[in-house]
Amino acid sequence: MLLLSAAVEAREPAVRTVLLSEHPEDFTPSVYVKGAVSTVLRFEAPVDASKTRMLAWEGRFEPLLVGGRKVVVEPVRDLGEDEGVPLLVTLTNGREIPFLLKPPGQGRRAELDQQVNVFEDRQRYEAMYSTLMDSLKQQRVLKEENALLRQEERSPDHALAALLANGDIKHTPFELGQSWQLKNEEATVRVEVLKSKRIPKVAVVFTLTNHDAKKPWSLMEAKLSTRSGGKSRPFALRMQQDEIVPGATGRIAVVADESVFQSPQGLEQLALELFRADGLSQAYLVLEWRPFKE
């Protein structure tokens, strides 16, 4: 097994509905934005461009784009964790709606917004339709997650990954192969590649110590794919805990079958990559299958 290092970013945006009638008059909705990514705010009435503005935006945002019932905002760079930029949208009917432009939260607490549909009254058709679409989307996501969990409960690879994530290697058929340590200001990651004489599988255990003084570390996603064509390969993943608080250490375990290395052209090299919650790559490994040697 081989290990290399690299960094890359990615995050999937989302569409969200804000119903103003559900909140008090002093409520300021948050809109979650990311550097170099456009976010669209869509309203029931046309927007008055002359009275729609951001405060202290110079150097942090591109100029506002206002047209019809839409406002487009785009940060020049990622906002800091404690940064917030006020936005005041004024509709042609005179209604003023304040927003606070913020960076996405950690983990699943707040996703990046691709589009925010803003409605004053939930009884209007568009509001009801948008809310229904949100509910159906959430229901679909929950069904997919439940189906995946049921499938994982019956998976031997997920059972092995759970044991490794809890540090119980002695009850698995694996033994330690190679290991490395990657370190930067934010985290130290020890990477261990495990092999087995008895089963045709490979496992990788990441032991991560969070050096950030304020933010917990959490995993956005992991990817296993062929290096040549970027085709996804199946694998099992388990974490010791969902978040690693400042100063603490946690484990992430990945288990994959030998078959993921195979293709019509022969054995493939695979790339295994971990993305932390802000979308940046925490670790990048290149794996290749080699028969076990005594």
Explain what you see.
By secondary structure, the chain is mostly beta strands. The protein has two domains: 14-149, no CATH class; 155-287, Immunoglobulins (Immunoglobulin-like, Sandwich). 13% of the residues lie in helices and 38% in strands. It contains two helices and 20 strands. It has a five-stranded mixed β-sheet, with helices on one face.
Task: Provide key terms for this protein.
294 residues, Immunoglobulin-like, 2 domains, five-stranded antiparallel β-sheet, elongated, disordered N terminus
Task: Give a summary of the structure in a few sentences.
With 294 residues, this protein is mostly beta strands. It has helices at 125-153, 156-165, and strands at 14-19, 30-32, 39-42, 53-54, 65-67, 70-73, 85-90, 96-102, 113-119, 175-183, 187-195, 201-210, 217-226, 236-239, 243-244, 249-257, 262-263, 266-267, 270-276, 281-287. Strands 1-9-3-6-5 form a five-stranded mixed sheet, covered by helices on one side. It has a five-stranded antiparallel sheet with strand order 10-11-12-16-14.
Number of helices: 2
How many distinct folded domains? 2
N-to-C terminal Cα separation, in Å?
A: 15 Å
On the 0 to 100 scale, the average pLDDT is: 84
What is the structural class?
Answer: mainly beta
How large is the radius of gyration? 23 Å
- Beta-strand percentage? 35-45%
> The biggest beta sheet, please?
5 strands, mixed
Order of helices and strands: EEEEEEEEEHHEEEEEEEEEEE
Regions with little confidence, pLDDT below 50 for 5+ residues:
1-13
Biggest sheet, spatial arrangement of strands: 1-9-3-6-5
